Model the fold of this input.
Amino acid sequence: MKTPTRLLIGLGLATMALLLPAPGIRAGQESASGAIPWPRVEPTEIPHDRPLRAGFLIVDGVYNSELMAPYDILQHTIFHVEPGIEVFTVSPDGESVTTFEGLTVGAHYSFQDVPPIDILVVPSTVGSMDADLRNDSLMHWVEETGQQASYVMSLCDGAFVLAGAGLLDELAVTTFPGDQDRFAAQFPHLDLRREISFVHDGKVLTSQGGARSYDVALYLVDHLYGTRVATGVAGGLVIPWPPTAATMPATVITH
Amino acid sequence: MKTPTRLLIGLGLATMALLLPAPGIRAGQESASGAIPWPRVEPTEIPHDRPLRAGFLIVDGVYNSELMAPYDILQHTIFHVEPGIEVFTVSPDGESVTTFEGLTVGAHYSFQDVPPIDILVVPSTVGSMDADLRNDSLMHWVEETGQQASYVMSLCDGAFVLAGAGLLDELAVTTFPGDQDRFAAQFPHLDLRREISFVHDGKVLTSQGGARSYDVALYLVDHLYGTRVATGVAGGLVIPWPPTAATMPATVITH
Done:
C-alpha cells in the first residue's frame, strides 16, 4: 500500500485538480477521453458535495478477499479525490462476524441504524447460494437497499443474493467461474456472461470474485472519478491501470 | 471463492492423491518437474504430521490487503492438502486492531500465548517505516519469532520491519515500489531488487504487496506442497496458476 505520506501527496494533487478544473470538465472527472478499454458509461447523477457511502454487507462466513479487495479500492479514493467514498460494514444485528477464513471482523452498522447507502456491495459468503437466500430479513434488506442505491456490486457468489433479491432482472451478469453452471440453472431467465472478470450493466456491477475483486472496484472508481483517480488508487495496490481488454476482460453495456 | 462443496471435492481428490502417491513422490509434492517459471528450491525440512502454523502479525494500522491476500491463500490449503496450514493472527496484547482502512479485526493470540510459529507473516502497517521500528517489544518479538520460524514473509513495507529486526542480512529482498528508494537509503547494506513481484532467498520471502500479495503466498504453497495444490488454491481465488515469468516476475535464489 502507498504510505500516508504518499497518499497525502496524491490528495494534494487531487485537490489542486479540483480547484482548477479545465473548462467543461466536471470535478473529479478525467479530462482525456479515457484510457479504459471498455465503452465509457456516463455516471449516474451522484452528489459531489459529500462523500458517497459504500455499505458492505457482512454476515458470518463472508469471504475475506471478496470483502477486502473492493473495500480497499473504494476506501483509498479519499486519498486521491475529494470527497471520496466513505466505506463501512453492515451486519444484520450490528455485531461482529466470523469470516470463512476464521477472522473476526467488526460491523460499523446494523440494518436498523445504517445510513442511506449509495453503493451497496455484497461479497460472497458460505451461504450465498442457499442459506442467505432463505434468510427473509436479509433478502428483504438487500432488495430494498439495492433498489434505493445508485450502484450495486456483487463479488463472486454474491450474485446469487442479488439475483434472489430480483436486482439482476433484465441485466447481463457474472459470478464465480466454478458456480456459473449452478447460477444458470438456478436463474435461467438471467443473462449470464462467462470468461470475463466483471460485468457493468445499468447500475449493477457483478464480478467473478477472488483476486479479481479488485478489477470491478477499480472500474467503478474510474467510472465515477476518471482514470487519473483510478490510476492513483491502483498504484497504491500495485495494480497496473488502465488495464487492457486482454488482461482484464469485461463486459460493459451502454443503454 | 470456491464454495465449501467444491472445496471438499478438492480435498477429496487431494486426500486420494495422498493415499496413492506415485513411487518416490513425497505426499503433497508435485509429480511433474514443476511448472512454475522459477528455479525450484527444495523446501526446508518441515513436519508433515501436523498442520504448519502461519502467524500473521497485526497491529493498529495494518493494511487490509496485505493481511488478507496471503491469509486466504495459506488458509485455503486445508481444502487441498492434508494437513494444510493453520493460520492465525497475533497482536501484541491479544486485543483487536483497527486496520488502516478502518476495519476492526480480532487477534487469535497475544505475544504471551501464541504457539510456536512455522511461517511468520509480517504485513505492512501505517508504521512499518518508522513507529513500528521504534517499538522495542514488537521488534524483539519479530526478531526472535523470525529466527525460530522455518519461513518468514513480508508484504509491502513489512520488509522494513524484517530489515530492522536483522532478518534480511545477506539476502536479496523487495518491498513496495513507491518506498524502494527509501528502503535503499535506510538499509544500504541490503540487496534490494526492483521491478519484481517477490523475492525468495533462504527462508525469507518479500513481496511488493498490494494485490500482488497473492503471488508470493501462492509461490510458497507451490514450494511447500507442489503445483497441484497451488493450482487448486489459486482456482478458488480466480488466479491462473502456474503463472508465467512475464505475468509474475520474481527472483528465486538457490543456494
